[in-house]
Design a protein that fits this description.
Rossmann fold, 10-stranded mixed sheet, 5-stranded mixed sheet, alpha/beta
């Protein structure tokens, strides 16, 4: 209040000086002295009423500046009205009021800005202040870069000090952001004369090609480089210094931000009881995390792995959330265990992610694939139907399309199960089909990374093999979005972008690890394994794509089921019974009876070319 009093007095006195060319006549000097206390009193009263002195000014923002202008405007107008009513306008220099108003806004704002500048640039008393800071260059002078640099400036204990930016936007070259200059484009990075210790990539929406270019240039500098998470990873889009991490392969995919209809998902999950099978797995555990965002009343985490259930219990104890997280150790093959869980929890939304997924292993043990992927799904859908669950979502795979392996065939049968029972059930059943998930257990990237860490070689089955990939976060978010819009036994297909060449993926990972392919880490081609395709497909020959309101989600529409649920269940049960014989040939023949497109291929068979394996995508409006 003392500072504001001084600012108001200086503004008032300055207004008279400017009005009279720094030579105030004596008659106006007495007027200044008599009215100054009135303006000071009125302004301080308004400042108190508006909560001026409850603000933490070290965090002054544009919003506070607007509040200052509003309060000064109201108090100045009040002072003018008061002046006019008491004395009238005769003999009073009116231009003084306008000049006073302008000076008043400037001095009051300046005092607040000075406080922020002091605490952000000159205050050294923080106990956690970091003395030895890393000098960093930021790649990307956009919104993310601005947010990161603002946090660095406002956090004395930050381990970084900013040296400047580089950005490929020609229009901002030489410009400054929070006092730090854009020093050039990305390609100029190795030639910068300014000294720096580390590079921080703040371009979360960069495409895969752009990220490859950035990583290549960053590596050429010899400096360590890190990045902020992609927008897909942060459903609340809260990017901060705590999120900084090493560049991973998912960054090289350059996946764009997932636009979610948060209201529809919240309407589906808010206050509901959600059962997630396979909750300890890659997709299942991420589904648990994503569901928590939408405040369900309870999440039942169902898994048959004791260690994973223990991990869920530990994580649940750390979560500060009103949602009840209930870990349950059990198998989808045990009907008694399932009945107990359904009777006790009465789940309303079921996300069925439990499955066997490793192709070569399931080729050697097809009875287990049938038991888990077919029998387990059958048990789950019957429980959901019996207990009148609202929605049941099957997590499926692109390997269910024209399958050549046991895993794909069993997942296709699981899709047909939910489509068949949906015709006669009150529960809304649906499936979500997508490709490989980056970083899931046993997948290519962790395997390649382990081989790289061991010094190589990196083993690839075929130099021309391609796969579709998406991040765990993206897959989980789109599963929830599909569930929110699903109504009638649909199979949803998630937009997977371009297929990725496995050979290129391995080479990118080797380079990200600081080595060169073939020179430092050798690559060995081992040949296709049992049940593997060179190219994955996204739809069967009798399926058409129907676009939805969400650009990353499509509906696959195939032939209508002509067999009743009871008849189809008998056919499925026959397949399950044959699996108990442990006879691979009989099991494969049984699978083919249920999935006519299933073509089991011996290990040594020649895989058809891409043209033979695929067919044009058909769109239906």
């Amino acid at each position: 209040m003392l500072i504001d009093t001084s600012a108001i007095a200086l503004s008032f006195f300055g207004a008279f000086l400017l009005r009279f060319d720094f030579n105030i006549p004596s008659e106006f000097l007495s007027l200044l002295i008599s009215w100054l206390p009135v303006f000071i009193g009125i302004q301080l009263i308004f400042f108190n009423i508006s909560g001026f002195y409850n603000v933490i000014w070290r965090f002054t923002s544009v919003w506070e500046m607007l509040n200052i202008i509003k309060s000064v405007t109201i108090s100045s107008l009040t002072g003018i009205v008061f002046l006019g009513l008491i004395q009238g306008w005769v003999g009073y220099p009116r231009s003084v009021i306008l000049i006073f108003y302008i000076l008043n806004v400037l001095t009051i704002c300046s005092s607040r800005i000075a406080v922020r500048l002091y605490f952000s640039h000159f205050h050294h008393s923080s106990a956690g202040r970091n003395i030895h800071k890393k000098r960093i260059i930021l790649i990307g002078a956009g919104k993310t870069g601005e947010k990161i640099i603002r946090e660095i400036i406002g956090t004395p204990s930050s381990p970084f000090t900013v040296m400047g930016f580089v950005d490929d936007d020609i229009s901002i070259q030489g410009a400054s952001l929070h006092g730090f200059k854009v020093l050039g484009t990305v390609k100029d990075l190795p030639n910068l004369t300014i000294k720096y210790d580390e590079i921080l990539i703040t371009a979360p929406s960069a495409t895969g090609d752009q990220m490859r270019k950035i990583v290549k240039v960053s590596k050429s500098t010899g400096k360590p480089f890190k990045t902020v998470p992609s927008l897909i990873e942060l459903i609340d889009k809260d990017i901060s210094l705590a999120n900084i991490r090493n560049v991973s392969y998912s960054d090289l995919l350059g996946r764009k931000e997932v636009k979610l209809d948060m209201n529809s998902i919240k309407e589906m999950l808010n206050g509901k009881r959600v059962l997630i099978t396979g909750a300890g797995g890659s997709i299942g555990s991420e589904l648990v995390t994503q569901c928590l965002t939408f405040s369900p009343s309870e999440i039942i985490c169902y898994d048959n792995n004791e260690e994973k259930i223990f991990d869920i219990s530990v994580r649940a104890n750390k979560h500060e959330t009103p949602t009840i997280i209930k870990p349950v150790l059990g198998s989808v093959l045990n009907k008694n265990e399932l009945a107990k869980v359904f009777n006790e929890t009465k789940p309303q939304i079921i996300l069925h992610a439990a499955a066997y997924k490793h192709v070569p292993i399931q080729e050697d043990h097809p009875w287990n694939a049938v038991n888990t992927n077919v029998q387990g799904t059958l048990n789950m859908v019957e429980m959901a139907d019996k207990n009148n669950a609202e929605k049941f979502v099957l997590v499926s795979t692109d390997k269910a399309v024209n399958p050549v392996n046991v895993m794909g065939a069993t997942k296709r049968i699981a899709e047909k199960i939910i489509q068949s029972i949906n015709l006669s059930s009150k529960t809304q059943f649906m499936a979500v089909r997508f490709g490989n998930v980056l970083g899931s257990s046993g997948s290519a990237i962790p395997t390649f990374q382990k081989q790289i860490n061991e010094g190589g070689p990196v083993t690839i089955t075929h130099p021309e093999m391609t796969r579709f990939f998406m991040s765990i976060q993206e897959a989980s978010q789109l599963i929830l979005q599909s569930a929110a819009i699903g109504r009638d036994g649909e199979i949803f297909l998630l937009e997977m972008g371009k297929s990725v060449k496995i050979d290129q993926m391995a080479r990118d990972l080797i380079r990200l690890s600081g080595f060169e392919p073939e020179d430092d880490i050798s690559i060995v081609y081992t040949g296709l394994r049992p049940g593997e395709k060179l190219y994955e497909e996204l739809q069967t020959q009798d399926e058409n794509l129907i676009v939805t309101d969400h650009k990353k989600i499509m509906i696959l529409k195939g032939e209508n089921h002509k067999v009743s649920w009871e008849e189809f269940k008998v056919m499925v049960q026959e397949c399950i019974n044959i699996a108990q014989t442990l006879d691979i040939d009989k099991i494969q023949l049984s699978l083919k009876n249920l999935v006519p497109y299933y073509q089991p291929r011996p290990f040594a068979s020649k895989v058809p070319s891409k043209q033979q394996d695929s067919f044009p995508i058909r769109w239906e409006a």
